[in-house]
Design a protein that fits this description.
Number of strands of chain B: 18
Number of helices of chain B: 15
Shape of chain A: globular
CATH topology of chain A: Aconitase, domain 4
Structural class of chain A: alpha/beta
Largest sheet of chain B: 5 strands, parallel
Strand content of chain A: 15-25%
Radius of gyration of chain B: 20 Å
Distance between the termini of chain A: 31 Å
Distance between the termini of chain B: 51 Å
Helix content of chain A: 25-40%
Helix content of chain B: 25-40%
Oligomer: heterodimer
CATH architecture of chain A: Alpha-Beta Barrel
CATH topology of the largest domain in chain B: Aconitase, domain 3
Strand content of chain B: 15-25%
Strand order of the largest sheet of chain B: 4-3-2-5-6
CATH superfamily of chain A: Aconitase, domain 4
Number of strands of chain A: 7
Number of helices of chain A: 7
Structural class of chain B: alpha/beta
Largest interface: A-B, 38 and 49 residues
CATH class of the largest domain in chain B: Alpha Beta
Strand order of the largest sheet of chain A: 4-3-2-1-5-6-7
Chain lengths: 165, 418
């Protein structure tokens, strides 16, 4: 799977409250509407200006906080093709894979806002086309690539119904 | 080599001899869902199996605590749908009646030693104070648990926090956990089981232990655990658990874990400053900061012992004129006990708004919110931007004692000076 888009840069400890603020909980049964507020408390311009294929690029501990799965879902709905961060909070990482949002662990210091990136999920190679350099992400385990390729855990389980027994 | 309690619980739940780093498909003893995360879990179940049938309904516990009583027509519709789902499946549903789901799990005997428990909420890690392994999961994972009664895990490594020394008056479990989070950072225990031990932990009560396990997630922990002792045993007896037949799992002396040590002798009350839980300092650094709202409650600090210490400080006092004090017992049984013992009376006399058991302002989407530029002092667990209302507001996290003292003076106050 190859992905291409612009980078949106964020810092450390972007929480699920930054991604999906509690004051929009009433929208949670209307995910496309909730997606209009994605990342609002980290960058109010993001939801308006993000384009399909763009990347969220962040520092350490991305997605810390709540277990709310709405967080990776609205990032995916906003058209973001992958989140690249130095590290992820555990529940967010797992939820992202489960809903089919690619998440890559890599050194993001050499990526700036607006850089054009090309990402190969299976090899974990991130090409920064703007800066003309290559960053190697930690490889995603095979089983997770398969879940992502299926489109998420639900679709994966449907293809492997033996786990339901 | 010996094993940690986490490795032993995962070995028991998977039927295999496993160690940290192994991937396991483990049997889930109990699964908790609430009104915010259950709807997506049900959707995942439907998408996985094509129907709304839970495989082991007797292992699922439901409670409504985030938007109660329904604060909007949408919340009411969600509750209605969940009630029907619980009824159709024969799931035990506490509805809006008993309080915060996490507190229900530990006071109604749903969380017991040795068990593997999941909950569709990040603070599920609280139940480990009863010597079980409990962890928060997302809704799709919960849909998988509904469909199979099992879930995949990576067996976590363990950080052992050894806490020694004598706590000063009005310094409690909340201050210890804030201090530890400040020490290791918001991702200092990412993916790991946080086991608390040492002389101090052996002396503090279950209420403080629940608080400390509850906040393991604020340093990234997969679980918070305090291993079984006479205090755990006494608590379980009090909630009606007569005896535990199985051998209670404990960490072997030669097990492998990382160790962090803390001496709490002379430690002052701790405060997490905006907007990060690991932005921690002693109360003296922020004393005098003007506040607009004080919240005493939540799954972190809404227990009887929390209300009792706050009432002790507020007895005969009045909440400062420009301050709103909101007090919310974590469960109906705590509420009843506090009513009976005159504790609620003290809050009402002082001018507090006492609300029915629920999450209250902690989730920032229902009621008790703060406006732009306002400062909230809260006994809850997160001070992220926008967590209690306006993203231009500020939240300081403290213990119930510090919160009560702060409410009286309208500025952050060291409870030892009241």
């Amino acid at each position: 799977m190859k992905l291409k888009g612009r980078a949106w840069k964020f810092g450390d400890n972007i929480s699920t409250d930054h991604i999906t603020p509690g004051r929009y909980y009433h929208l949670r049964s209307n995910l496309p509407e909730l997606a209009k507020h994605v990342m609002e408390d980290a960058n109010p311009e993001f939801a308006k200006k993000v384009r399909a294929g763009d990347f969220i690029v962040a520092g350490n501990n991305f997605g810390c906080g709540s277990s709310r799965e709405h967080a990776p879902i609205v990032i995916k709905l906003a058209g973001v093709s992958a989140v690249i961060a130095k590290s992820f909070a555990r529940i967010f990482y797992r939820n992202a894979i489960n809903v089919g949002l690619p998440v890559l662990i890599a050194d993001t210091d050499k990526i700036d806002e607006g850089d054009i990136l090309e990402v190969d999920l299976s090899s974990g190679i991130i090409r920064n086309l703007t800066k003309n350099l290559e960053i190697k992400a930690k490889p995603i385990p095979d089983v997770m690539i398969k879940i992502l390729e299926a489109g998420g855990l639900v679709e994966y389980v449907k293809e492997h119904s033996d786990v339901l027994v | 080599m010996g094993k940690t309690i986490a490795e032993k619980i995962f070995s028991l739940a998977s039927g295999k001899d496993v160690k940290a780093g192994d991937f396991v498909l483990a049997k889930i003893d109990k699964a908790m869902v609430h009104d915010i995360t259950a709807p997506l879990a049900i959707k995942a179940l439907e998408r996985i199996t094509g129907e709304r049938k839970v495989k082991y309904p007797e292992r699922v516990i439901m409670a409504f605590d985030h938007q109660v009583p329904a604060d909007s027509i949408k919340a009411a519709e969600t509750h209605k749908m969940l009630r029907l789902f619980a009824k159709e499946n024969g799931i035990l549903n506490y509805d809006v009646r008993e309080g915060i789901a996490h507190q229900i799990m530990v006071e109604k005997g749903h969380a017991l030693p040795n068990q593997l428990i999941v909950g569709a909420d990040s603070h599920t890690c609280m139940y480990g104070a009863l010597s079980c392994f409990s962890t928060g999961i997302g809704s799709t994972d919960m849909g998988f648990v509904f469909a199979t009664g099992k879930l995949w895990f990576k067996v976590p490594e363990t950080i052992y926090f050894e806490v020694n020394g004598k706590l000063e008056k009005y310094v409690c479990g909340k201050d210890i956990i804030l201090k530890l989070i400040g020490m290791v950072g918001a991702d200092g225990a990412n993916y790991k089981a946080c086991v608390y031990g040492g002389d101090t932990i052996r002396k503090i009560g279950m209420s403080d232990r629940f608080t400390m396990c509850n906040m393991a997630i604020e340093m990234g922990g997969k679980a918070g655990i305090v291993e079984f002792d006479s205090i755990t045993e006494k608590y379980l007896k009090e909630i009606g658990i007569k005896e535990i037949k199985e051998e209670i799992l404990k960490t072997d002396e030669d097990a492998k874990f990382e160790k962090v040590e803390l001496d709490v002798s002379g430690m002052e009350p701790q405060v997490a400053k905006p907007h990060r839980v690991d932005n921690v300092c002693g109360v003296s650094e922020v004393e005098g900061t003007k506040v607009d709202q004080v919240f005493i409650g939540s799954c972190t600090n809404g227990r009887y012992e929390d209300l009792k210490v706050a009432a002790e400080i507020l007895r005969g006092e009045e909440v400062a004129k420009n301050v709103r004090l909101i007090v919310i017992p974590a469960s109906r049984s705590i509420y009843k006990k506090a009513l009976k013992d005159g504790i609620i009376d003290i809050f009402v006399e002082a001018g507090a708004l006492v609300e029915f058991p629920c999450c209250g302002p902690c989730m920032g989407g229902s009621f008790g919110l703060i406006a732009s530029g306002e400062v909230s002092v809260s006994t809850s667990n997160r001070n992220f931007v926008g967590r209690q209302g306006s993203p231009e507001g500020k939240i300081y996290l403290v213990s119930p004692a510090t919160a009560a003292a702060t409410a009286i003076y309208g500025e952050i106050t060291d409870p030892r000076k009241v």
